[in-house]
Specification:
Length: about 600
């Protein structure tokens, strides 16, 4: 026997925690089964069984007379003329009903344990005593206990041998337990989706303070709520609707917003994009005096970026919001591109906004920092999060020519932005069962390691990428990388750049374009969004579409998944004179031409 065993895999993520305590909290069990199934590759057995015999088929046969059906394999049914598809559908229905029944017992047991917690937050004593309030008396149920006992009896089995035919009983038990833990964790961390107050609060607090719903250390594994299930390809993510795992270095901040967003009851969002700055001069870029012993100064340098245009919240924010509200009603969020404002301008903008929007997302310049600021409004307070950029931007000769920066930067050298690479983090804002949003910053979309694993584990409905880039054309790199996330996990992606950078980017043979945003979703494809001449901003309206998704093992979510689709684009013309020097705003707002779909 060689290689890591099942028992060692458990101890790697759980430490010295006794296996006998494991059934109490479904996310912990999910973490364990996910790690073992992923490391062994055994998750593929749900669609590639060892044989066509019924005992090897997935899902497990839950028929009342399993002793007879064990011999009811595919070739036998074909010989007697039965319809294989009808039988498979019945088998899936019985399996899903079995999972739902077991999940109710497991959740009831977990809820009873939460009620027995001490006021100081201590855990109940080891063991499964009867609940004085009438809850489940003996654990999460016979099914879960039986599966756990079977797995414990095989703790010495090598993980690498889990796909061998001889290991199928153990593999099947792990696959079954994985599905049970997923179903039992439905709604954890998603506002309005968990009926049981005790376990719902436990999941919310764990996410808020530790960025995971599991009790295991985040240096070993992180368990997160999940919104989308990939419908293409096959990975361990294909086997769950409600939870996903991540084992990367990325720190997760999970915020549940309790403030009702405008349009939320109608399943709509109105996103106000202000593509600031409207002008970017070549002189806004200059060589930095920062020295770095790691790079050769003859070949590399650092550049500074400080736009000439200053952001005035009263003029460039409140005036524009008021104009947008007159046209479309309430605004759900305000979005500013990468490096659009400095930290002093951010503080002034946040103070001016008050509680007019649900969240404020802005790209901010700081001393050797480039980060996305996310302000999430609650009824009683404002939650503020910074998310530093994960990868530096490097300007080469082609980009220096494309942006017309030859007078500011030597095209014979490579120029890095001087930001420090800080702790990799990602912020998720989960507002309701149909909206989970995550921001990215420019290169973090193009160079997805290590954050992409977290995004795919969660499957947020909406990813907003703040860019300092040229026009957002579907054929350029933002469109290509957005397509990857639209395919897996199925997110909708909005990329946003400034008008100034869009107009500066003029490759040879091209003319300037005012395309400041790009929308990409799994259903309707890409939509380029221009800022009309004279306009100050654009409002993008998106709506939720409920769709049915399936796990690779055939489980339906019964239409609970949501994809966001673009339903409208509105140009915003503020009534007062614009701060832009190149053009004057129009007197009224007008919608863009055509319907996105």
């Amino acid at each position: 026997m060689s290689g890591k065993t099942i028992g060692e895999a458990w101890r790697e993520i759980a430490g010295e925690r006794a296996w006998q305590l494991r059934p109490a909290w479904p996310p912990d069990v999910f973490a364990f089964t996910s790690v073992v199934l992923a490391d062994s590759g055994a998750y593929r057995m749900v669609i590639s069984p060892h044989s066509e015999a019924s005992e090897h088929q997935w899902p497990p046969d839950m028929s009342p007379q399993q002793t007879d059906s064990a011999y009811d394999d595919v070739p036998r049914r074909r010989r007697r003329g039965d319809t294989v598809n009808d039988h498979a559908e019945l088998r899936r229905a019985r399996w899903q009903a079995h999972l739902n029944h077991t999940a109710r017992d497991w959740r009831a047991f977990a809820e009873s344990r939460e009620r027995r917690r001490t006021p100081s937050g201590g855990r109940p004593a080891a063991g499964v005593e009867a609940d004085p309030e009438g809850g489940p008396a003996n654990g999460p149920g016979a099914t879960i206990e039986t599966l756990c006992q079977l797995i414990e009896a095989s703790f010495d089995a090598p993980v690498a041998k889990l796909t061998d035919p001889a290991a199928w009983p153990l593999c099947r038990a792990l696959l079954e337990l994985h599905a049970h833990a997923d179903v039992a964790s439905a709604g954890f961390g998603v506002p309005g989706s968990c009926a049981e107050p005790g376990i719902g609060m436990r999941a919310r607090q764990a996410l808020l303070y530790r960025g995971t719903v599991s009790d295991f250390g985040t240096d070993r594994v992180r368990v997160l709520p999940k919104l989308r299930t990939p419908q293409t390809g096959l990975t361990i993510r294909s086997l769950s609707h409600n939870l996903g795992i991540d084992r990367s270095e990325v720190k997760v901040n999970w915020q549940t917003s309790t403030m009702l967003l405008p349009g939320e009851r109608a399943h709509e969002l109105s996103l106000l994009i202000i593509p600031w700055p409207y002008q970017v001069q070549a002189s806004d870029f200059r060589a930095s005096t920062i020295l770095d012993t790691v790079v050769d100064p003859r070949a590399f340098g650092f550049f500074e970026y400080e736009p000439t245009q200053r952001f005035d919240p009263a003029h460039n924010l409140l005036r524009v919001i008021s104009a947008a509200e007159r046209d479309v009603g309430g605004i759900s969020a305000v979005i500013l591109p990468e490096s659009s404002i400095n930290e002093a301008e951010l503080d002034a903008a946040e103070a001016a906004l008050g509680d007019r929007v649900g969240f404020f997302l802005a790209g901010v310049r700081g001393h050797r920092r480039n980060y996305a600021y996310l302000g999430v409004r609650h009824p009683s307070h404002l939650a503020r999060y910074d998310q530093d950029k994960h990868h530096r931007w490097r300007l080469d000769a082609a980009q220096i020519a494309q942006y017309g920066l030859g007078q500011s930067l030597d095209a014979n050298r490579l120029w890095w932005e001087p930001m420090r690479v800080r702790q990799r983090e990602i912020n998720f804002v989960c507002a309701n069962p149909w909206l989970c949003m995550a921001p990215l910053i420019c290169e973090d979309l193009a160079r997805p390691d290590p954050v992409a694993d977290v995004i795919r584990a969660v499957g947020p409905n909406l990813v907003i990428a703040l860019l300092m880039d040229g026009p957002q054309l579907s054929a350029r790199w933002p469109g290509r990388y957005a397509s990857v996330l639209a395919d897996d996990p199925g997110s909708s992606i909005l990329t946003v750049t400034s008008l100034g950078m869009a107009l500066r980017s003029v490759p040879p043979g091209m003319t300037p374009r005012r395309t400041v945003a790009l929308w990409k979703d799994p259903a309707e494809g890409a939509r380029e969004i221009d800022l009309d001449p004279g306009a100050d901003a654009v409002v993008v309206t998106v709506a939720a579409e409920f769709v049915e998704e399936f796990t690779a093992d055939g489980r339906s979510d019964h239409g609970a998944a949501v994809r966001l689709v673009l339903t409208g684009v509105q140009q915003v013309f503020a009534p007062e004179p614009s701060s832009r020097a190149d053009e004057a705003p129009g007197a009224a707002s007008k919608p863009s031409d055509g319907h996105p779909r």
